[in-house]
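Structure in, sequence out. Go:
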């Protein structure tokens, strides 16, 4: 507990001294899961309150007199107490159970990225919550694994039923959390195609740039570049299935070179 002096006033006529002190629980703003019980602190549970300590003789007022006055104030009815009390958890499903649930909820066909599950505190009272035996979990597709929900990341809530010690999802939504590859799955094939068509058209060479890749599909920007000026033209974004990327890319590159005007 900490004590802060807010000010001292002295009545010159009566000689009365009044000290205003703010008493605060140091653990009032600790992490979730802990609560501060405070008496006679304010109703907002801030863990602090301001009291007035009075003395009859300002001239003889000192630390000992102040301490004695405080003891008399809290001798009978008032109690100051800073109690951290551990609350029961809002969710009872265990981590290993939630891992199985996130795997089931994630409907990505390939390159699955593990969903991050976190308990959403219930606003219902404890008795009603216990009777319902259901809890809400947030599913987050944390692609960059920074722990924060970024603008381009999927996040949704699911209801989990805890029945007879087993946790199951109720009305699971469709969630697809898929890894993003920095390199296209067919990039090596694309490089070979660029080399094969280097002399296909006069004055221009093919340019194939990977935009996004996965095991199933790759997205490229395909165009042509002037050998002299370096100008790129006929650029087009295309997505190809990785099982036919060689045939598909060759056709697209050939068309881009024929239409090139740079």
């Amino acid at each position: 507990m900490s004590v802060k002096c807010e000010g001292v006033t002295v009545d010159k006529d009566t000689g009365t001294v009044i000290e205003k002190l703010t008493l605060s629980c140091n653990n009032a703003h600790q992490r979730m899961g802990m609560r501060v019980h405070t008496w006679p602190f304010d109703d907002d549970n801030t863990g602090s309150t301001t009291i007035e300590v009075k003395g009859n003789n300002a001239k003889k007022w000192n630390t000992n007199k102040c301490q004695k006055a405080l003891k008399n104030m809290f001798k009978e009815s008032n109690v100051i107490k800073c109690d951290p009390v551990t609350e029961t958890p809002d969710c009872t499903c265990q981590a290993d159970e939630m891992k199985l649930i996130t795997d089931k909820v994630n409907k990505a066909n390939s390159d699955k990225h593990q969903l991050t599950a976190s308990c959403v505190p219930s606003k219902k009272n404890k008795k009603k919550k216990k009777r319902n035996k259901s809890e809400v979990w947030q599913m987050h597709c944390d692609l960059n694994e920074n722990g924060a929900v970024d603008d381009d990341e999927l996040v949704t809530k699911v209801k989990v039923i805890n029945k007879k010690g087993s946790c199951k999802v109720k009305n699971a939504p469709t969630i697809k959390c898929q890894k993003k590859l920095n390199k296209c799955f067919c990039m090596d094939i694309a490089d070979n195609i660029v080399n094969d068509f280097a002399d296909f058209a006069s004055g221009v060479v093919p340019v194939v740039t990977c935009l996004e890749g996965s095991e199933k599909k790759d997205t490229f920007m395909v165009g042509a570049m002037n050998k002299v000026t370096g100008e790129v033209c006929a650029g087009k974004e295309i997505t190809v299935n990785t099982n036919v990327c060689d045939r598909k890319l060759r056709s697209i590159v050939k068309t881009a070179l024929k239409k090139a005007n740079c």
